[in-house]
User: Which sequence fits this backbone?
């Protein structure tokens, strides 16, 4: 596996994310299930995930299903619970990865991000009252909790950028793959080069992420307290 990493990375800075850049990635498995610890729903590498974070994401997903006029059966709600637990665990794993690599989000970056959210704007300008009411009434969390959520999203985006930028795929490899799969279409290479190269690089990025995710899945201690 390490040879696979060495083939496609420019440096040691390789990590993984789930469901980004349009790719499909395997998730974390092999959880340890234990008694619920107070109001915590899970624990990742010693860091506990509080119930309020679960409620925030769960309410948001259920509200979205309602807007889509989906039937909220017990099976659907159980699936939402499982997806939220998975998302919370992934979020904590990758936030810890961001911190491990020294990725930080400044207060100025956070403020700029929040001011750019359309739901918090009136006639194109940021409105604190809209911000406050939306967070309280729709997300049902405090502004401070929402700030933490957004800070994690920004850290995630930074991690995502540096990971994808670290993966190098030579043009010669892309052309060799095209030639192997399209032996009778070599004259079309110049026309199809751009789209084919983008798609091939994305496949490599997804493959590298999944390989690393498998490794990460075996090293991160995850315990789930939530029983539904």
Assistant:
């Amino acid at each position: 596996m390490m040879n696979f990493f060495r083939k496609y990375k420019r440096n040691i800075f390789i990590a993984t994310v789930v469901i980004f850049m349009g790719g499909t990635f395997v998730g974390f498995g092999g959880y340890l299930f234990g008694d619920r610890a107070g109001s915590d729903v899970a624990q990742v590498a010693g860091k506990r995930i509080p119930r309020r974070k679960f409620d925030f994401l769960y309410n948001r997903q259920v509200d979205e299903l309602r807007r889509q006029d989906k039937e909220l059966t017990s099976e659907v709600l159980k699936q939402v619970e499982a997806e939220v637990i998975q998302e919370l665990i992934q979020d904590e794993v990758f936030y810890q990865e961001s911190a491990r690599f020294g990725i930080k989000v400044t207060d100025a970056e956070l403020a700029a991000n929040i001011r750019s959210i359309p739901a918090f704007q009136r006639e194109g300008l940021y409105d604190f009252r809209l911000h406050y009411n939306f967070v309280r009434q729709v997300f049902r969390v405090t502004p401070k909790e929402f700030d933490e959520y957004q800070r994690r999203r920004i850290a995630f985006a930074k991690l995502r950028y540096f990971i994808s930028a670290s993966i190098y795929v030579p043009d010669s490899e892309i052309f060799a793959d095209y030639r192997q799969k399209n032996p009778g279409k070599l004259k079309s290479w110049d026309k199809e080069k751009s789209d084919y190269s983008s798609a091939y690089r994305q496949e490599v990025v997804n493959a590298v992420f999944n390989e690393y995710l498998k490794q990460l899945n075996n090293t991160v201690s995850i315990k789930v307290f939530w029983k539904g």
User: Anything to note?
Assistant: The CA atoms of residues 63 and 69 lie 10 Å apart. The helical segments are 2-8, 51-67, 74-100, 107-115, 128-139, 143-166, 171-181, 189-217. The longest strand covers residues 40-44.
